[in-house]
Amino acid sequence: MGTKEKQSPTFSATVVKRPRHQVEEQIRHAIRSGALVTGQKLPTEIELAADFGVSRTTIREALRTLVADGLLEKMPGAGGGSFVRSLDHHAFGADVGEYIENMLRVGSVDYREVAEVRRMLEVPSVRLATLNRSQADLDELNDVLEEEKALTFDDPAVPELDVRFHSTISKASGNRVAAAFVSALHQVTEPVHHLKLSAEVGKRTFRQHVEIVRAIEKGDASEAEMAMREHLSYLEEHSTKDG
């Protein structure tokens, strides 16, 4: 009786990661898991090289990648080094704003496209703000209105107040991702800077701000949406940017 032939085991290829990728992966996991927290300073390159059993060059390359990915930031000087970056929606908004500003400056996108995205975000955001706003949000919006009321249309403080107005509404929506985008778009483009400003335009935009806030106060989401849509259309119609 013949013996049954034994089957060979099944083998499969495994991915062998380069040392740099292993370093990146472990530090990335430590940040995402909370083992490394915002603001925490990493060990020196020499210490990390000893911990991982790799060269300082490998550590330096891994850290450079993590900086580019937005997880770490390098600080110069005697007390400097590699630190875990803030990963909240404020940091996200700042990164988005910087990227959009660069695209606008090199001409890969135009102002009209940014205005369209702003409309896509701000109209639904004002609806959410009407439903979710707190008394503190209403107080902040009314404070902005009071400050705007006291200014002339060509006052240098107007653009900053406009950014604050729209950012407060997006924050009141309760959606931090939307708030980060709206704030970034306004910080970068500062729509008021691109208006064909006059006393009449200044008065009209202020009245529109008042109408938006009053709709939010009443809890009328449809009215707030309509007021915001009218306001954004007015900004586009009186913009000096034509794309």
TrEMBL record:
Signal peptide region: none
SMART domains, per the entry: FCD, HTH_GNTR
PROSITE patterns on file: HTH_GNTR
Molecular function as annotated in GO: DNA binding; DNA-binding transcription factor activity
Pfam families, A to Z: FCD, GntR
Record keywords, A-Z: DNA-binding, Transcription, Transcription regulation
Domain HTH gntR-type: 17-87
Listed PANTHER family: TRANSCRIPTIONAL REGULATOR, GNTR FAMILY (PTHR43537), UXU OPERON TRANSCRIPTIONAL REGULATOR (PTHR43537:SF5)
Protein's recorded name: GntR family transcriptional regulator
Organism field: Mycolicibacterium holsaticum
